[in-house]
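Question (not urgent): is this output format expected?
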Amino acid sequence: MYLTQGLHRALQCTPEAPATIYGDRTRTFREHIDRIARLAAGLHSLGVTSGDRVAMLSLNSDRYAEYLLAIPWSDAVLNPVNIRWSPAEIAYSINDSGTKVLIVDDAFAAAVPALRGACPNLTTIVYAGENDASEGAVLYEELIATHDPVEDARRSGEQLAGIFYTGGTTGFPKGVMLSHTNMVTSAAGTVATGELLSGAARFLHAAPMFHLADLAAWAGQVMLGGPHIIVPFFEPVAVLEAIEQHRPTDVLLVPTMLQLLVDHPSVSEYDLSAMQRILYGGSPIGEGLANRVLTMFPGVRMTQAYGMTEVAPVASLLLPDDHEGATLRSGGQAAPHSELRIVDIDGNPVPTGTVGEICVRGGHVMQGYWNKPAETAAVLRDGWYHTGDGGYLDENGFVYVVDRLKDMIVTGGENVYSAEVESALSKHPAVAQSAVIGLPSETWGETVHAVVILAAGAEVSAEELQAFCKEHIAGYKTPRSVEFVAAIPMSGAGKILKRELREAQAERS
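Got this back:
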């Protein structure tokens, strides 16, 4: 199995079909593959050899789609850079991975001088933009225009496909090593449900293409040979316009993005009837938001994916027919390519309904963390990946994620799972979003603290929210303090950065 395999099928079967659609630029599979093979040759001319890492720091584009395939075509290794990181974090990932070649677009060209200074082994910058290149950079389009296509190296199987750095929600980024088998297994297993993509699917890339959530859908679409419709980044109007103009059938979004779409005042003005399937992840979706999405996209089928970078990234799927009742709060059942189990602190399986650590096994589980054998050994044990997520399985195999184990709050000797408190808060009509963390307390060890974003035009006091929570959860789980904010820090994957919330509280105390 290898990521470029679908290209050869498409060239044989549908060479004149659209492969990428980006703004007013459409390229067929014949054109797409020719550019990929020429870019691979250009990379060879820059000294890229087997196993070398090539990074890309860019917004979504058709060139990003070419990068994702030209790197394995050239027998090299992907290193897609998180575009929301600070310069120091970007430099860390480049240095840690030993990346020598970095491709940048217009949005990040200004960062090149600082990265050159911070990354002594970064020998080559390739400029993939529309404006003038920065000094000393190689032109992406010239690499393609001045080199003859080379044969696909067919890098495959257990060979390393990419190093994907974690979003940093729990600490310093780690480079997750995923093989071609890992990535194709996760994509194929997800597609096998019949609830994502099809032979006639048109996939919209609105989530960041550096992230494994979007890349899993991308890999599935490459296998099936359908077109990739691409917008530079998520912005409600751009997404709505792309849906109306290019009529995609499938998209991946996080609940925050879905909320922004349904809340947009102009949403009713767009023809969204082409959309058939929505894959979402990052967190479960509330019943109210789910109903609004289904109203906005008549007939659409929604699937939730639970997973993480380390499992390339899909562990379980909540399929459309299970989006009702109690299961709506779950992460679904094990995906076709995945096994799940819950274990106690000693690694022993626990009974159904008992909270423990969620573990995952299958061909999609990472090879390990780049240059971090101790961290790898801590999470890969006896063939199982230990996720660090607390959860339980019900009698039908639905997994319920109650919290990151490291985010569990211990107050007065009682364990409080922040997800349960957040669920209670979400039921109040004045709450648009919340994040719950533990604050240090000499008396209780920790106290429950809620950070809340109010819905537009809504007003509510902390006391009212506390009283409301007590109607739904135990008193010791109810927030002792409530903070109202305009925004909550999010990772590039759309996950709440609770570490940053804790750090901000620590600075104020």
